[in-house]
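REQUEST FORM: STRUCTURE PREDICTION
Request ID: SP-0412
Submitted by: Lab K.M.
Chain count: 1
Length (residues): 332
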Amino acid sequence: MKHFALVLMVTAAFAAEGYHVLNKIKIGGTGGWDYVTADGANHRLYVSHGTSIAIVDTDTGSVVGGVSELHGVHGIAIAAELNKGFISNGQSSTVTVFDLSTFAKTAEIPAGQNPDAICYEPKTERVFTFNGRSGDSTAIDAKSNAVLATFPLGGKPEFCVAPGDGKLYDNLEDKSELVEIDAAKPEVTRTAKLDPCDGPSGLAIDTKDGVLFSVCGNKMMAVTDIKQMKVIATPAIGQGPDAAGYDPGAGLAFSSNGRDGTLTLVKQVNGKWQPVETVTTESGARTMAVDTKTHKVYLLTAEFGPMPEAKAGQRVRPPVLPDTFHVLVVGK
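STATUS: Completed
RESULT:
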C-alpha cells in the first residue's frame, strides 16, 4: 500500500503542471531574432528582431513601440530603477542605450567584438556585455554610460544571469564551462567544468536553492550547485536548445528546444531535478523569456519555407517566410 501511495504521489507531481500554448502575438516584418527579455513589473516584453527591437504590452498582446536602426540585435538588458534599457549590437560591436518611457535612443557605447548576451547587475549598477568574437566581457557604468573595463572570460560566452548579489554567471559554449564574475572588480573569480554537458547556451538561476541551469547541445540540462560549482544533475531535455529560464513561484526550470519544437519543464521531485512535462511549441522556438509575475513563458519563432538543398559540408536553414514572425505564449 505504501508503494502504491508513493507511485500516486510521483504521478501527481508529473501530471500537475498543465502548461500549453495559450496564444500567439504577431510581430511580423522580416529578419532574424535572438534574445527576448520579460519585464514583469511593467508588463512588457522586449523582442529582438534583426535591426530593431519590438516592445510588447503583455496585458494586451500588442506592440506598443520599438527601437529601430540597430545593428544585428542580440540581447536587451533592463535597468528599471534608472529608466534605461541596453541593447547589444553584434554587427557594430556597440551597446545602444534607450529610455524606457519614450523608447528614444540616448547613447551608443563601444563594447568588445560581437557582443551577444547582456546583463544588468543591480548591486553595482553596471551593465555587462558578453562578447562572442573576442571572448571577453565589457563592463559599463549604467548611470554614466562609461566603459569601465573589458576583461577576458577564457572562452566563447553565451547567456548570462545576474542574481543581484554583485556576481554574474555565464556559460562558455566552446569550453563547456561556467564562469563566476565579481562585478565590482570586475573579473572572473571561479570557473567550473560542466561535463557531461556539451555546448552550453541558455542559463537560468534558482537563487533560493543556489543552483544554475545550463541547457546543452547534447539534450541535457546541467544543474550546477553554486557553492560547490559542481554539476549535480543532468535531466533530459529536447533537441536544439538555446534559452533557459526559471520561475521561482512555480519551482520550474525551462528549456526551449527549437529543433524539435518543444519546451521542457524541469522540477525538483523527491529531491532530484528531473523533467516533468514537455510542451509542444513550434519549430524554431529556441529562445524565450519567463515572466515570473504571471508565470507565462514567451518564445520567439516564425513560419518557415522548404529546406534548401545543401552542398557537401554546407549548413543550411529553411528560409523565414515574410511577415510571419511571432511570439508564442505558454502558460496554464
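NOTES: The chain is about 5% helix and 50% strand.
Reviewed by: T.R.
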